[in-house]
Amino acid sequence: MTNYHLQENLAVSDSGFLFHASTGETFTVNETGKTIIKLLQQKKEKDEIFSQLVNEFDIEAGLLEKDYEDFINQLKNFSLIEVK
Amino acid sequence: MNIAVTGLNATDNPGPGIPVIRSLKEQKKFSGKITGLIYDSLEPGIYMDDMVDNYYLIPYPSSGLDNLMERISYIHKKEKLDLIIPTLDSELYGFVKLQPKLEALGIRTFLPTLEQLNIRGKDKLFDFCKANNINVPKNILIQSQRDLEKIEKQFKFPVVVKGIFYEAYIAQSFEEVLPYFNKLKSKWGYPIIIQEYIKGDEYNVVALGDGNGGTTGAVAMRKLYITDKGKGWAGITIKENTLIDMAHQIIEKTKWCSGLELEFMKSKETGEFYLLEINPRLPAWVYLAPQAGQNLPAALVKLAFGKKVKPFTTYEIGKIFVRCSWDLITDIKKFETIATLGEW
Questions:
Q1: Angle value at C-alpha B259, between B50 and B135, nearest 5 degrees
Q2: What is the predicted pLDDT for the residue at B165?
Q3: Architecture of B1-109+325-339 per CATH?
Q4: Which among B175, B176, B177, B190 is positioned nearest to B122, based on CA atoms?
Q5: For chain A, what are the domain ranges?
Q6: What is the pTM of this model?
Q7: Does A22 lie at the interface with B, CB-CB under 8 angstroms?
Q8: Which residue among A9, A11, A24 places its CB closest to the CB of B222?
Q9: Cβ contacts (< 8 Å) between B318 and chain A: which residues?
């Protein structure tokens, strides 16, 4: 399974505000995005992340895979994540 | 203690004078006087409350060093200056040359040498970086119109066309180079610098060298908002050890004596930092440094008085500066006095 690793020096506030301390870039994410990022910071595997998202949010399991990959691709585009 | 500071032009292209003064005044034990040295009776800094205790017009650098020295001698007789902190690029060569005369009067400075100033000149920086394994955009010096043909052979477009002292333009094609070349040639003379264009994001470091190769402090910042003049109007302190290490390396190699600002571009293509410029004085955003934990202007004053300063090693990450435009209302008396008498 592909593992994603968030960049070091990425701070996430409770309001979903991201600050990349190395580049000075800032971003905002919604509740779902914030949850994914916090779980990635805890180095959770994809199936654990999916399980928590389905439990916490009103998410259709069938759409989750695509939405998750879209979000991960956005994080990659902003160089916030690396594939290990 | 009476410290004279220049660069009170707090305009849309602000000088570093007011941020330096604010930094000095925020030290707990500061009880000295500040004398503002100004070139124009409408420099906004002199109208700001509680910034300067008195101020004097001084002649522009172009009017010659003798005039400047004569004026400073006059001011010194009245105010007993202990230290002068020049903060503008254009006046640094003059003050460096006047150092022995100022010292003879008992006025201290903490300035780079002429050799150090020359190393970071736009025509010399490339060689300095190459000799010290510092990434730097490729550049060539154009000494005549005939040299222009080198551009198409050696560069991919776009390229940056820079004047020897100030101004830079991005040219997308050879045809676009020509008007910029002519404009810069007539304004600043030869050489014109043609520089590889690095696409990416701009980062800056403010640092203080102790004159013996040691770095007293260094703070890295990313500009968050840039005006149409290319000036940072907001910025945030960042944690990027590569930039701080490069600042240490540059200060060690040059034995830099004074404040300086390093301008870097982080290439989108390679992710590496390229040194664009070394500005030989504290920058206008220096007030961010003390607010993040490194009062570099205060440390500069201590070094100028021969005191030992324990180097700063950390600073607060995520500290933001945001500039503001603010209309000051003042009485005509102040303007009248400075315009007629040249002092207040």
A1: 140
A2: 77
A3: 3-Layer(aba) Sandwich (3.40)
A4: B190
A5: 4-78
A6: 0.91
A7: yes
A8: A24
A9: 11, 19, 21
